[in-house]
Amino acid sequence: WWAYGSGILFPWDSVQGTITWQYRPDTPPTVEGKSNKYLFPAGATAVLNVHSWMRDAVAVNSMPLLLVEGTKQYLAAVSAIGEAATHAVVGMAGCWGWSSNKAPSPDLQAIPVQGRTIIVAMDADIASNPKVYEAAERLSKTLTDLLGAREVKFLRLPSSGSTGLDDLLGSFDPSERSSKTSISPSSLTAR
Questions:
Q1: Which residue, of 44, 51, 153, 158, has the greatest Cβ tally within 10 A?
Q2: Can you tell me the distance from the alpha carbon of 131 to that of 87, in angstroms, rounded to the nearest whole number?
Q3: Closest CA relative to residue 139, chosen from 125, 121, 157
Q4: Roughly how many angstroms between the first and final C-alpha of the chain, as a whole number?
């Protein structure tokens, strides 16, 4: 990691309680023409991120679960919802971050999903990138067919490209953010 110079380290606190570090270099390396902005240690398995504010809420099967793609997006959602959680919030690193070799990761399997409502917040490119759409479809089927979720809905972001939930939340005045962050049925799409 340090070969890439300065950057930020993010702790990914897994559902099972282990910490895996993610590195965001100030100057990301480019591999096969693509910038790798966020790096995990070589050989690290996929983990889902559970902030300490969310640990109890994640365990409550009756509470809706918001599964958010992306490090900053996830942290923005946790910050907006706060300690008095109305939704359990879990982060995933990228659109396939819920899986290991396209099968459910041990962390996803450790979350009580049976009978639960799951809301997924992918980046806005779910509408234009077939690979992100495929990951979302597979996640939805895994949650319902394999893990028994009651329903899976996707949060529609009012933007395009790789805009994420963090960009949307950041566009609100901080004093109004809590009143604008409720998840309404009109912003959801069932899959």
A1: 51
A2: 27
A3: 121
A4: 38
Q: Which one, of 68, 147, 74, 153, lies nearest residue 109 by Cα? A: 147
Q: Point out which residues pair with 8 in neighbouring strands.
A: 24
Long-range contacts, 1-5 (Cβ 8 Å, 24+): 1/25, 1/39, 1/41, 4/28, 4/29, 4/39
Task: List, for residues 114-166, the tens digit of each pLDDT value.
Answer: 999 999 998 878 888 899 899 999 999 999 999 999 999 998 777 666 666 76
The secondary structure of residue 179, as a DSSP letter, is H
Task: Give tens-digit pLDDT for 164-190.
Answer: 676 667 667 766 655 555 554 444 444
Distances (CA, A) of 78 to 90, 126, 141, 165: 8, 22, 25, 11
The closest of 96, 185, 186 to 139, measured between CA atoms, is 96
- Write out the DSSP string of 34-82: EE--SB--TTPPP-EE--TTTHHHHH-TTS-EEEEESHHHHHHHHHHH-
Q: How far apart are CA 58 and CA 90, in angstroms?
A: 8
Pairing of strands 88-92, 48-49: antiparallel
Q: Which helix (H) or strand (E) holds 130?
A: helix 130-141
User: Which 3 state secondary structure label does DSSP give 182?
Assistant: coil
Distance between CA atoms of residues 119 and 122, nearest Å: 10
